[in-house]
Design goal:
Number of strands: 49
Shape: elongated
Structural class: mainly beta
Amino acid sequence: MISELQGGVTDDKSDDGKSVSTLNFGVNRPTISCIFDYGSRYHLRCYIYQARDLTAMDKDSFSDPYAIVAFLHQSQKTVVAKNTLNPTWDQTLIFYEIEIFGDPQSVADSPPSIVVEIYDQDTYPAVHHIPGFETEPASVLDESADSDLPYPPPQREPNVYMVPQGIKPDLQRTAIEVSAGDQILAWGLRNLKSYQLASVTSPSLLVECGGQIVQSCVIKNLKKNPNFDLSVLFLDVCLPREDLYRPPIVIKVIDNRPFGRKPVVGQCTVQALEEFCCDPYREEAELPEMRADDVSLTPRDEVLIDIDDREPLIPVQPAGGMTSSALINQPASLADLHEEECVDWWSKLYASLGQREKCRSYLEKGFDTLKVYETELENVEDFGGLSDFCHTFKLYRGKTQDASEDPTVVGEFKGSFKIYPLPDDPAVPVPPRQFHQLPARGPQECLLRIYIIRAFDLQPKDSNGKCDPYVKISVGKKSISDQDHYIPCTLEPVFGKMFELSCTLPLEKDLKITLYDYDLLSKDEKIGQTTIDLENRFLSRFGARCGLPQTYCMWWRDQLRPSQLLHLFALQRNCKAPIYKTDRIIFGDQAYSLSDLEDGKPPNPHLGAVEERLALHTLRKQGLVPEHVETRPLYTPLQPDIEQGKLQMWVDLFPKSLGPPGPPFNVTPRKAKRFYLRCIVWNAKDVILDDLSITGEKMSDIYVRGWLVGYEENKQKTDVHYRSMGGEGNFNWRFVFPFDYLPAEQVCYVAKKEHFWSLDKTENKVPPCLVLQIWDNDKFSFDDYLGSIQLDLNCMLKPAKTAEKCTLDLLESGERLVSLFEQKTVKGWWPCLAEEGETRTLAVGSSVDGLLVPVGVPLAGDAPVTMPSIRWGTLEVKMAEKRILAVSLRLLTADTTPIALPQNTPSVSLLQGKLEMTLEIIGEQEHEERPAGLGRDEPNMNPKLEDPKRPETSFLWFTSPYKTLKYILWRRFKWVFLVIVLLFILLLFLGIFIYAFPNYAAMKLVKPFSLSQT
C-alpha cells in the first residue's frame, strides 16, 4: 500500500503543559472504564518498501531515515538507511499476539489505525522527527489461529524480514548507462562552490539507484578541466517494472581531500526516469567503424572534414554589411537607387515580422528571411531544450529548515542516462552500449559573437517612467560594458550591437547578458539579466552554434560550407554519406532537387555553387536550427519570478580549431540622414477675405507659415502681402527645413529634450509631414487663421499645373499621389482647406453663375450641394464635426438669409485658398554645393528670388499715409472730396462776400472820396 505522508506531530499538551483531557474534564475527573466480555488475538504484518523525497535533516544534505510503526500499545521500527532521501527498506514488520477487545465484526468494520512515523537518526542521543511525515492508513486484520498463520518472509539478516514476493513490485534486471560530464556531450561538473571555506578541487561522482552504487574517476584539477577522464559509467541494478515503484537516481558529488576526507559537497535526485528510457535494439545504419572524436568539433587533427583550400570559403564580401540575400544588381533608375538604400539587415528582420511598411519591397525581390522566436532557443519544442545528448542537473547542499525553502544550489552536474532492460539469462548477449561517438573532453577555444538587437517592455527605473538602458556582457572573468552608449529615456531601446569575445569551453560556459539603467549621480541599477549555456549550444546536434540561412550566397558567416556541415551531420547521426548528382542530392533515401528549391524565385547572380546550395537545402530539411533571433526574458535576483522585460538577440559560436569565421552581420541601427526641404511659396490665390478696411471693403493681410511635424520650433513665415482685395498674394519666399530622415522606414528621426532640465534627448519617429497655413495679419489683435494644407512627403498630393485646375477634386483622386523623395522636385498649385468646428467665408465673384460647395471626401452616390446663382456677395458656411450646419448668403443689397441643409448632408471640406509652391528635397552634400538662403536673403540663389510684384494697393496704412490717401480715401471718396472742396470754395466766397459787402455798400452810398475832392 502506498500512502501519502502528512505532516505534523500532534501533542496532547497545551501551551502551559496541561493535558487536553485535564482541561476538558477538570482536575478531579471520574475514572472512565470500558468493560468487554471477551477479546480476540490478531497477527499484524506491515510491509515497508520505500519512501521518496524526504526532507534533508543533516548538514550533508541527506538524512538517515528509519520508520516507526505504532499499532495500539505496540511499535516496531525498520533498519536505518544511511545517507539518503529516498530510502528503500524492503522490510516486513511482524506484530505477534495483538489482543483487541470487542466484537470481531465491529473490529473488522472499524479497525484501529496504524501510525507510521519517519525519523532521522543522529550520532547524538537525540533523534529528530522528520517534519511533515506521519500517516494513519487503514488496516485490515484477520483473526486466525496460530496454526493458520502464513510462513514468515525470507530474512535478509537476522530478525530483518524482507517484503515477500507477490507483494513487493516485480523486479527486472536493468542497465543504467550514466553519461557523467559535460553539458550534452563533454561530461563533468560545473560551477561548484566551496565547501567549509575550502574550494572543491578533486571531485568524484557517486551514482546510486536501487541499492547499487557506481563511482566515477576523480577529476584531477577542476579549474583546468572539469570533465571526467572516463565518461561512461555502467550500473546493473534490479528495478521494478512499473514506473510508479521505480526508485530515483541519486547523484552525489564527493570532494577527495587530504587525509582521506571525502565530504559530500552536493547532491541531486533524479525522479522522473521515463524520459531516459530507450530501446537498445533500435535500427542503426550500417557504417564502418569510426572513432568517437572523429565527429566532434575539437582541435584534434583527425577530424574527417576535408576543407578545400583551393576554393576560398568567402570568395568576395559585399560592402556595407548587406545580408546574403541583399545582393542585387546596380539600379538603373532613381527609384531603384532609393530602394537599394533601404535594404539592410533590419529589412530582413522587419520582413520576417511581417512589418511591410518598414521593409518596403524586400519580400518582392525574393530576399531571405529569418526565424523570430518568441522565447529562448532552449525552450523551442523542436530542439528539445538543446539537451538532445545530455542534461543539466542542479546540485544542492544543506539542511532545509523550512519546507518552503529551496536548498542552496552549489553547482551543476552535466550528464545523461540511458535506461534499458537486460536479459535475465546471463548467456544471452547484452544489448549494445548507447553512448558512443562522444566528443573530446579537453577544453575548446571558441570565438563568440553576441548580437544584441533590441529590448522591449522594460521595467521603468527613473522618475519619468522610463530608463536609460545599456548592455553589459560577461563570460568567465571577461566582461564588456557599453555604458558610454546608453540609450536615454526609453523602455524599448534598439541596440543593434555586435560584441565579440573569446571563451574556453567548458571552463567559461555561462554567458551573462545584463541590462543596466544609467544614473548620473547614483549607482547604476540592474534592470534584468539572462544567462545562456554556451556549452549546450556548442555540443547540440541541432547545430545551435550557428543558424542556417535560407540561401548560400557570398555572405556566408559559418566556418564550414554546407557540404562539410552535411558530411558532419551524417557522421553524427550514423547516416549514409550524401550522393551528389547534377541537379539533385540523395540523402537518407530522399532526393532533393534544385528545381524544388529555386523555382519561382527571382534569379540571383550571387548564389554559390550548386552542390553547396543543394547541401544547404538538405540541411534545412533535417530540423536544424535556422538563422534566427530569439527573445529572452530578463529577471533580477530580487524578483526571480517576475519578468523585467524581453531582449531580442542571438549568439554565434565558432571553434577556433576550424579557422576564422566569415564576416559578421552589420546590425547597426538605421541611422537617419540629414535632408533639407526647400519650399518656395510663389503666390496665393482665392484666399478668403477676413477683414474690413476703414472704408468697409473686404480684404486680408495675407502671409504663409510653415513647419515640419516634429520640428515645431523651426517654424518659418513669409512677409505680409497687405491689403489683398481679391484673395491674391505674391511672396517669392523660400523656406528651408532641415530634418533627419530614415529612408528605409520612411519616418523622420526627432531627438529633443522633453523639459529644459532634462539631461538627454528623447528620440521619436514621426512621419515626414509639411504643414502650411495661411494667416491674416493683425497689428492690434491676434492673427486670424484662414486655411491650411498638410502634405505627407512620402505620399503627397500631386499639384495642379494651373490655379483654375486646383480644386478639392484633387483630394478624391487617389492616383494623383507622388513621393517627394523619389520625385525630388515638385511645382504647382495646392488647395488649402478649412478645419472642422470653424466658421469660414468663401468669396464669390460676379462671374460665378452658381456655387458648388466642394466635397473633401467621396459622397458615396450622394449629389453635392449646389447653391443658387448670385451676382456679388459672400457665402458663410458654419462647420462642426465635418458637417455643414448652416449656410447663409449675404448680398450687398439684401439681408442675410439662412439656408438650412438637411441632416444627411455629407461631410465637406471648404476651399480656403490656393498656394503655388515649389518643393525640393536635397541631401546634405547637395545642400552645401547648392546653397540657398531663407526668404530672399543671401545667398539668394538656386533659384534666385526676385521681389514680388505686388499691386500698389499693397501697403500698411499707418506707415504710408500718402498711399493711404491716394489708394484708399481718394479712390473711394474722390467725389466726396471734390464736392467738399467746391462747397468749401463756395462758402469761402460767400463768407468773403458777406464780410466785404457792408463796407462796399457803405462806400458806394457815402462816397467818401468824392466828398474829399469837393
